[in-house]
Design a protein that fits this description.
Layout: E1 12-16, H1 21-32, E2 37-41, H2 44-54, E3 61-63, E4 69-70, H3 73-78
Parallel strand pairs: 1-2
Antiparallel strand pairs: 1-3, 3-4
């Protein structure tokens, strides 16, 4: 079994769009779990940066405080049970 995740030291960075269903799904989950995050609007430069870090250009993409990146909302929302709840 993997050790528990460390508490968040800063809000998650959620790269997405306000009109994206999947970004909305992820934001709803983060609000429900009281996990601090900031949404950053996607643009061409960010898409290139995300592709360099993840190998794909899709949204939403989450940048974790420790430098890891997540790109799929289903594993993301099931894999964060160890994070400390914090308010925005």
């Amino acid at each position: 079994m993997d050790p528990p995740e460390p508490p968040l030291t800063r809000p998650l960075r959620v790269y997405g769009a306000s009109l994206s269903y999947y970004t909305g799904k992820l934001e709803a989950y983060l609000r429900y779990k009281e996990i601090a995050y900031e949404r950053i609007a996607m643009g061409p430069a960010l898409m290139r940066r995300i592709r360099r870090h993840t190998g794909v250009a899709q949204m939403p993409t989450v940048e974790l405080p420790d430098g890891r990146w997540l790109t799929d909302t289903t594993p993301s929302s099931t894999g964060w049970s160890g994070f400390t709840r914090t308010r925005r």
